């Protein structure tokens, strides 16, 4: 039975654990994770490498199966949600298909979903404009910079208009200037579309700048240490990072991260 | 234009140098190899021959051990341009026969190679059971098996083009299959995960990810395959009793000691091979350009 509040929640995770069976010993990747995300929230997972944040995201996306516990996505099992194409996934790398032009990369999910050609084209145009890449429709991925490629991959995830956007360190491989620019871009995009966003990062300032809530995780086994609310003004720009309110939240995140980090390995 | 560009880009000069060196060696070898015959037969009643006469004679024999390049060139010109194209005496006719069985065998080889690769990549049991046989098939010398194929197919009522094309196919499906297996397995985990997040059907994953990803690998194989397909076609023409094709020309040339004719046919086979490889290369360039390859 699904609890009544799970139907309104975008994501409802209860007592979730995941063990990887490797050659030498089982590895507990996630332990006893409890988390509810409301529709329209922007939630970041932050933690050091190996803390299971990407694994948790992949559980939500039904790319791996949890060992124990329950999870619903939009009130459904992750598998149902995936089959209904409930989420768009943005990977660490742009994962564009090099033989497709920018437009045809954008329309790839739409083709798979069987959308008519004219509508596909219109969607591609709309979402390319949304990420500021009009005029690049007929370019191939290699003709674009890394930041532009990642914007195409975000537009591709938004293009089929899912209620949920899963972003796995999407700007991790980019330089700081491009990353700042894309962060601001993403925030404006979220304000306009109000989709639920789950955002994995290991940058504190990125997490604080973007999110409503910051989920701090610790490694081995991966678990949630603390969930920190952020109440920065919704129309914030990058300048907010100099304010006392921002620094206070960033400090709380840093303290939580330090508390969870054992230096014995 | 192309010649001019290749000259500018620095290909033409080294090429021309190599060609010149080869020609010099060839002419020298012709003197060296033909001289004993010339001295013992032509000069048998003329003991006071000069070096000049010897060289002239070795370069103009009717049945030399090694014909001089210009003899081959003249034979090539005469047998291509001075014969009716439908005549058995026309080298152009024989070349067309060989070219058509090469191309047919190549097409059959692509179909077989691609089908095998798709099966091997998608069905685990085929991977285990087929691949060793495919590799074993290539260790059998084609010269040994070609007559069998011709005889067996001849008894079944297939003569002419098809048996030769089958031999070509037998040789050229192999690089196609190996290249396609590698190509179909080339998509990285991220590209595969992406398809999974779209809950794409297996057919969609195949047509939208695996098959386009394999195209560059396919073309790399095709360039090898077209060359050995030509070899297969020529080998297939040898046991037919020397009727049609470049292989038949080689065979009849060796029956009658027509070394000039043999060499002309060899040069023609080389030219045909170069043209076919160039055509595959052109198709590759055009296709990969459309698929966004960097120029």
Automatic annotation (TrEMBL), chain A:
Q: Which PROSITE patterns match?
A: ABC_TRANSPORTER_1, ABC_TRANSPORTER_2
* Keywords in alphabetical order: ATP-binding, Nucleotide-binding, Transport
Keyword ATP-binding annotated? yes
Record-linked Pfam families: ABC_tran (PF00005)
Show the SMART domains listed in the entry. Answer: AAA (SM00382)
Where the record annotates domain ABC transporter, the positions are: 13-244
- InterPro entries documented for this protein: AAA+_ATPase, ABC_transporter-like_ATP-bd, ABC_transporter-like_CS, ABC_transporter_ATP-bind, P-loop_NTPase
Database matches in CDD domains:
ABC_NrtD_SsuB_transporters
Q: What GO annotations for molecular function exist for this entry?
A: ATP binding; ATP hydrolysis activity
Q: What does the sequence similarity comment in the record state about its family?
A: Belongs to the ABC transporter superfamily.
The family database entries (PANTHER family) matched by this protein are listed as: ALIPHATIC SULFONATES IMPORT ATP-BINDING PROTEIN SSUB, TAURINE IMPORT ATP-BINDING PROTEIN-RELATED
The protein in question is named ABC transporter ATP-binding protein
From TrEMBL, chain B:
Q: Which InterPro entries match?
A: MetI-like (IPR000515), MetI-like_sf (IPR035906)
By its UniProt entry, which CDD domains does this protein fall under?
Answer: TM_PBP2
Query: Alphabetically, which GO biological process terms does the record hold?
Result: transmembrane transport
Which PROSITE patterns has this protein been placed in? ABC_TM1
Tell me which SUPFAM superfamilies the record gives. Answer: MetI-like
Q: Name one GO cellular component term.
A: plasma membrane
Q: One short Pfam family name for this protein?
A: BPD_transp_1
Q: What is this protein called?
A: ABC transporter permease
């Amino acid at each position: 039975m699904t609890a009544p509040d799970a139907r309104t929640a975008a994501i409802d995770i209860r007592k979730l654990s995941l063990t990887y069976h490797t050659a030498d010993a089982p590895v507990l990747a996630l332990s006893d994770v409890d988390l509810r995300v409301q529709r329209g929230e922007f939630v970041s997972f932050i933690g050091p490498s190996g803390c299971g944040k990407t694994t948790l995201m992949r559980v939500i996306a039904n790319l791996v199966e949890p060992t124990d516990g329950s999870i619903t996505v939009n009130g459904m099992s992750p598998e149902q949600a995936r089959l209904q194409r409930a989420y768009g996934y943005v990977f660490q790398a742009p994962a564009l298909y090099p033989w497709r032009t920018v437009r045809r990369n954008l329309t790839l999910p739409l083709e798979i979903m069987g959308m008519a050609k004219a509508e596909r084209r219109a969607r591609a145009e709309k979402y390319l404009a949304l990420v500021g890449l009009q005029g690049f429709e007929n370019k191939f991925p290699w003709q674009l910079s890394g930041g532009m490629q990642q914007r195409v991959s975000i537009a591709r995830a938004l293009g089929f208009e899912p209620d949920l956007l899963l972003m796995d360190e999407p700007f991790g491989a980019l330089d700081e200037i491009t990353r700042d620019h894309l962060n601001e871009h993403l925030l404006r995009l979220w304000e306009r579309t109000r989709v639920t966003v789950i955002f994995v990062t290991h940058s504190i300032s990125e997490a604080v700048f973007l999110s409503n809530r910051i989920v701090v995780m610790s490694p081995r086994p991966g678990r949630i240490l603390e969930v920190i609310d952020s109440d920065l003004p919704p129309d914030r720009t990058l300048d907010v990072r100099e304010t006392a309110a921002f620094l206070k939240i960033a400090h709380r995140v840093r303290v939580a991260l330090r508390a969870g980090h054992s230096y014995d390995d | 234009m192309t010649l001019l560009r290749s000259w500018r880009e620095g290909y033409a000069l080294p090429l021309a140098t190599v060609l010149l060196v080869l020609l010099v060696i060839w002419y020298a070898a012709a003197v060296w190899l033909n001289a004993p015959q010339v001295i013992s037969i032509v000069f048998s009643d003329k003991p006071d021959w000069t070096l000049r006469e010897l060289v002239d004679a070795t370069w103009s024999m009717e049945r030399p051990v090694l014909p001089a390049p210009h003899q081959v060139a003249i034979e090539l010109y005469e047998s291509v341009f001075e014969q009716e194209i439908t005549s058995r005496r026309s080298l152009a006719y024989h070349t067309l026969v060989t070219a058509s069985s090469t191309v047919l065998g190549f097409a059959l080889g692509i179909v077989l190679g691609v089908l095998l690769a798709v099966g091997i990549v998608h069905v685990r049991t085929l991977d285990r059971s087929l691949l060793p046989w495919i590799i074993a098939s290539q260790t059998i010398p084609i010269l040994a098996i070609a007559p069998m194929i011709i005889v067996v197919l001849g008894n079944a009522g297939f003569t002419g083009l098809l048996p030769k094309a089958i031999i070509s196919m037998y040789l050229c499906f192999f690089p196609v299959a190996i290249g396609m297996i590698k190509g179909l397995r080339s998509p990285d985990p991220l590209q595969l995960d992406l398809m999974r997040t779209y809950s794409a059907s297996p057919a969609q994953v195949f047509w939208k990810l695996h098959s386009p990803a394999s195209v560059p690998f396919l073309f790399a194989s095709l360039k090898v395959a077209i060359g050995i397909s030509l070899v297969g076609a020529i080998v297939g023409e040898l046991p037919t009793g020397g009727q049609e094709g470049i292989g038949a020309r080689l065979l009849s040339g060796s029956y009658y000691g027509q070394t000039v004719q043999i060499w002309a046919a060899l040069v023609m086979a080389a030219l045909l091979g170069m043209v076919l490889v160039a055509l595959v290369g052109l198709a590759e360039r055009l296709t990969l350009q459309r698929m966004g390859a960097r120029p």
